[in-house]
Write a structure and sequence with these properties.
By secondary structure, the protein is of the alpha/beta class. The chain contains nine helices and five strands. It has a five-stranded parallel beta sheet, with helices on both faces.
């Protein structure tokens, strides 16, 4: 249930990628350290890798804004786009790039132009599947930094933030119950809060443990204990 006295609209809040909204924790400290040292990247290239929802895209936006870099997505890369004059290039979902030749040309062109390039994927670039030997060689040479799975403290802080963003009222008891039962990923927390928001809005009822157990049964199991 939302706080009283406020208009409720059935639209999810837009996802924000501001630096102030990023939750720093031991699982992402190494990535933050490397992102602050662009000048130290070997061959001016760096890759972030980790499971979906662990913060790669957020960090890509953060670095691109600070460096004045362009931000592109791997699945949308076809041919060699016009390079920026300065700043750098951030390529999210680089491991999902369908045009291998385009990725190879982009790596080469960025290097020749002296532009730093940040890539992100679910696994290290050395493990990306490619049929081009030259591309495979370049990918193996990229320094890769893992964003590890979040710890309890980060998950708790994220859940509190997600609930607050949607102006929901959730008791501490339900908070802890959700953290014990839900999959331990940021993506699962985001989906769970979105479902609870929709259910509470539709029913006009408070977000209780019973409601959560019913709405999230496929994510946490049917038992509400």
């Amino acid at each position: 249930m939302r706080a009283t006295g406020q208009l409720t609209l059935p639209f999810p809040p837009s996802q924000r990628f501001a630096a102030a909204d990023f939750l720093e924790a031991p699982c992402n400290t190494a990535a933050l350290t490397w992102l602050a040292r662009t000048q130290d990247w070997p061959n001016r290239r760096l890759a972030l890798w980790g499971e979906t929802g662990n913060g790669k895209t957020h960090l890509m936006h953060f670095w691109a804004e600070r460096a004045g870099a362009v931000l592109w997505r791997g699945p949308s890369l076809h041919g060699l786009p016009e390079l920026p004059k300065r700043g750098g290039i951030a390529l999210d979902e680089a491991d999902a790039t369908g045009d291998e030749t385009a990725l190879l040309h982009l790596l080469n062109a960025a290097c020749e132009a002296g532009l730093p390039m940040l890539l992100a994927g679910r696994t290290p670039p050395s493990r990306w599947q490619t049929h081009l030997p030259d591309l495979a060689s370049r990918l193996r040479a990229i320094t890769a930094v893992e964003i590890r799975a979040p710890d309890d403290e980060l998950l708790r802080a994220l859940l509190i933030r997600l609930v607050k963003q949607r102006q929901l009222i959730v008791s501490e008891t339900v908070h802890e119950w959700l953290l014990r039962r839900l999959p331990r990923t940021p993506a699962a927390l985001r989906e769970a809060v979105a479902r609870l928001d929709e259910a509470a809005l539709a029913s006009g009822s408070a977000i209780t443990r019973a409601l959560a157990a019913a709405v999230l049964a496929d994510m946490i199991g049917a038992s509400p204990d």
